[in-house]
Design a protein that fits this description.
10 helices; Sig_transdc_resp-reg_C-effctor; 220 residues; 13% strand; single chain
Length: 220
């Protein structure tokens, strides 16, 4: 059973999402919160598999709530999915850097919403190649830090290659085709890289690839 925490300051939004989730046999909404502080407390109490968190809320917003969840070892199993009205804006970008596994626009169709919850619960990032490319394009306009290369020496050459391809927006299947390996082996390379670089998920792995200089943004 996938345990879900809903955190949104709009009761109508929460009730709409809950109505969808309650229809599924494999998903259970364990708690609801109206702000980030309440959401953090409920996350500690219920240890959900997925926390759906609105990005803009009073008291503590979704970015700070995500940052606190990511920093708490007791909440390592909680996968944060950011909810937004605005698509990939600067707030979403900051949330991904803070540790979110991905994001959803609130007008997502029900089928995609339910699929996203299941993907997040498995520990996979909600970053389709098209979204990854938007994330990459955002990096083109930002200076790269100079102190984030630590950990690269821990990667094997094949793991580095897989990380570079992931950062270029390729899916595991596309990485497998490019590297002439099985999709399972591609996923293994990505997972081992995440472990070595202490990345919570694929989103943070992509962020690391650019911030470390492993991949250079292309101005095209």
């Amino acid at each position: 059973m996938i345990r879900v925490l809903l955190v949104d300051d709009q009761p109508l939004i929460r009730s709409g999402f809950r109505a969808l989730l309650d229809l599924e046999d494999d998903i259970e909404v364990v708690a609801e919160a109206a702000d980030g502080i309440e959401g953090l407390e409920l996350a500690k109490d219920h240890l959900p598999d997925v926390a759906l968190i609105d990005i803009r809320m009073p008291v503590v917003d979704g970015i700070e709530a995500t940052r606190r969840i990511a920093a708490d070892p007791a909440l390592a199993g909680v996968h944060v999915v950011i909810l937004t009205n605005y698509g990939l804006d600067e707030y979403v970008f900051d949330a991904l850097r803070a540790g979110a596994a991905g994001f959803l626009v609130k007008d997502v169709v029900p089928e995609d919403f339910l699929h996203a919850v299941r993907v997040a619960a498995r520990g996979d990032a909600l970053l389709a190649p098209s979204i990854t490319r938007k994330l990459i394009n955002r990096y083109v306009t930002q200076p790269l830090p100079t102190d984030t290369g630590a950990g690269l020496e821990e990667l094997t050459s094949r793991e580095r290659e897989a990380v570079v391809l992931a950062a270029r927006g390729l899916s595991n299947d596309e990485i497998a085709n490019r590297m002439v390996i099985s999709p399972l082996t591609a996923k293994t390379h990505i997972n081992r890289a995440m472990t070595k670089l202490q990345a919570r998920d694929r989103a943070q792995l992509v962020v690391f690839a650019y911030e470390s200089g492993l991949v250079a943004p292309r101005n095209s």
